[in-house]
Amino acid sequence: FLMAYSVGQFFGGPFLGEYADRKGKKKGLIFSVFFTLVGLVITAWSMKEHLLWLLLAGRLMTGLCASNLSICLA
Length: 74
Hints:
Elements: H1 2-23, H2 25-49, H3 52-65, H4 69-73
Helix pairs in contact: 1-2, 1-3, 2-3
């Protein structure tokens, strides 16, 4: 479960960078921050409900969308 976040960042970075190049950095950052928030809400909800599969999905989604450092440094 800890590795899901890092795997998401590894695969999400190039996609978010490409999205930011095509649509603009501001839209890329808004997309990234919004879906990071959604992933964190899913993670919190999964802990409340004790659903491990949802925890994994939330961590993966947060990792995919939290790799906005590639957008900021581009």
